[in-house]
């Protein structure tokens, strides 16, 4: 068996806009009546200062577009963004596209066939026998099952694998409405666009993936939804989500660490998906983390918003670039199910 190691990360993001610019220039007019004042408070307390958009509402309003038109635009925008992230990850790992044995793409914001996996394999020059996997509609936690699948392939086959998470949430702004819909306001205040790629290789320098694990509370399946509608994909986000996480996150992390003889105090990097400020506060409280334990997650939310599946990899990249770089990292991400995923990484030189 080979030890799977993350040997290279590559990030790519479209142009950014400040949260204030987005509010003043678009969303203040997108919401009307009593909804506007509520929306303004939610935007102000989102924990987001800047975020990125391939389809910037300040320049182009897609809120009335039919889903078909949004999906065509997805391919146009996602392909170069994914190519940029993959190219950077391969360069960081010192590999070429032809070295990849398995190519995994995660995305819940766009669908088409042939998909990004096929188009990028063609454009980047991957080998004809490269295996491919597309992970769709898992939402914000998709990077971790993707990382788990890549790691299992590397362990069993001894060949490199490549994971790409690419999301264009900006394509799914919903039509304006005077009706108070807090879930849609929160979604519009938080989400952002990004692509992040990770190269996993057998052994060498980088972050060794020790384990990927999960727990799903199917009794709360209706708490987080992502429905395909005639006007794009519509987010459903219950305010009860933090309560569900509070019931499960400590047990998930404690069991993961115990299997590897590690205590929480020995973890010096926490890559926790910032679903929003309340999510981070709950995780911080339940895991009894130090005051700066989630600094990387909060900084990522502040600078990039919630980018869905790429976000936890953005945080991992930040932790790896820190001085000194984190040596042992726990990654946590959450999404529909409700599902909690966790991974334990160790840095090896």
In short:
The chain has ten helices and 13 strands. By secondary structure, it is α+β, with helices and mostly antiparallel strands. Strand 12 (328-335) and strand 13 (339-348) form a beta hairpin.
CATH architecture of the largest domain: 3-Layer(aba) Sandwich
Let me know the largest β-sheet: 9 strands, mixed
Instruction: Indicate the percent of residues in helices.
Output: 25-40%
How many discrete structural domains? 2
Percent strand: 25-35%
* CATH topology label of the largest domain: Peroxisomal Thiolase, Chain A, domain 1
Note the overall shape. Answer: globular
| Rg from Cα | 19 Å
* Strand tally: 13
Question: What distinguishing features does this structure have?
Answer:
single chain; Peroxisomal Thiolase, Chain A, domain 1; 9-stranded mixed β-sheet; two-stranded antiparallel ribbon; 10 helices; 26% strand; globular
What is the topological layout?
Layout: E1 4-12, E2 16-18, H1 19-30, H2 34-44, E3 50-52, H3 67-93, E4 102-107, H4 116-124, E5 131-136, H5 143-157, E6 161-168, H6 182-190, E7 193-202, E8 206-216, E9 224-229, E10 232-237, H7 241-259, E11 269-272, H8 277-286, H9 295-304, H10 311-321, E12 328-335, E13 339-348
Parallel strand pairs: 4-5, 4-6, 11-12
Antiparallel strand pairs: 1-7, 1-8, 2-3, 6-7, 8-13, 9-10, 12-13
Helix pairs in contact: 1-2, 2-6, 3-4, 7-8, 9-10
What does this protein look like?
The protein has 349 residues and is an alpha+beta fold. The protein folds into two domains: 4-202, Thiolase/Chalcone synthase (Peroxisomal Thiolase, Chain A, domain 1), CATH 3.40.47; 206-348, Peroxisomal Thiolase, Chain A, domain 1. It is built from ten helices and 13 strands. It has helices at residues 19-30, 34-44, 67-93, 116-124, 143-157, 182-190, 241-259, 277-286, 295-304, 311-321; strands at 4-12, 16-18, 50-52, 102-107, 131-136, 161-168, 193-202, 206-216, 224-229, 232-237, 269-272, 328-335, 339-348. It has a nine-stranded mixed β-sheet, with helices on both faces. Strands 2-3 form a two-stranded antiparallel sheet. The protein has a two-stranded antiparallel ribbon with strand order 9-10. A hairpin with a 3-residue loop joins strand 12 (328-335) and strand 13 (339-348). Helix 2 runs parallel beside helix 6. The longest helix is centred in the first third of the chain and has 27 residues, at 67-93. It is globular. The mean pLDDT is 95.
């Amino acid at each position: 068996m080979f030890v799977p190691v993350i040997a290279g990360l590559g990030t790519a993001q479209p142009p950014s806009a400040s949260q204030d610019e987005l509010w003043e220039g678009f969303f203040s007019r997108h919401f009307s009546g009593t909804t506007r004042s509520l929306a303004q408070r939610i935007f102000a307390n989102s924990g987001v200062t800047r975020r990125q958009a391939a389809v910037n509402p300040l320049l182009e309003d897609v809120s009335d577009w039919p889903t078909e038109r949004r999906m065509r635009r997805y391919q146009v925008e996602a392909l170069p963004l994914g190519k940029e992230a993959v190219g950077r990850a391969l360069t960081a790992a010192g590999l070429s596209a032809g070295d990849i044995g398995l190519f995994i793409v995660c995305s819940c914001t766009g669908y088409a066939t042939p998909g990004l996996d096929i188009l990028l394999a063609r454009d980047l020059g991957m080998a004809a026998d490269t295996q491919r996997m597309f992970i769709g509609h898992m939402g914000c936690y998709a990077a971790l099952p993707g990382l788990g699948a890549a790691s299992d392939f590397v362990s069993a086959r001894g060949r490199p694998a490549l994971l790409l998470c690419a999301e264009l949430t900006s394509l799914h702004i919903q039509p304006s409405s005077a009706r108070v819909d807090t879930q849609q306001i929160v979604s519009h205040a938080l989400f952002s666009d990004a692509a992040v790629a990770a190269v996993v290789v057998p052994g060498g320098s980088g972050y060794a993936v020790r384990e990927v694990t999960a727990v799903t509370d199917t009794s709360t399946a209706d708490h987080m939804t992502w429905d395909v509608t005639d006007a794009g994909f519509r987010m459903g986000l219950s305010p009860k989500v933090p309560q569900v996480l509070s019931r499960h996150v400590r047990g998930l992390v404690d069991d993961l660490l115990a299997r590897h003889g590690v205590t929480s105090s020995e973890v010096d990097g926490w890559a926790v998906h910032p679903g929003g400020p309340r999510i981070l506060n709950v995780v911080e409280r339940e895991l009894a983390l130090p005051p700066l334990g989630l600094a990387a997650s909060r900084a990522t939310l502040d600078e990039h918003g919630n980018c869905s599946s790429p976000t936890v990899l953005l945080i991992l990249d930040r932790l790896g670039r820190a001085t000194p770089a984190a040596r042992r990292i726990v990654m946590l991400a959450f999404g529909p199910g409700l599902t909690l995923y966790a991974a334990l990484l160790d840095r090896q030189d």
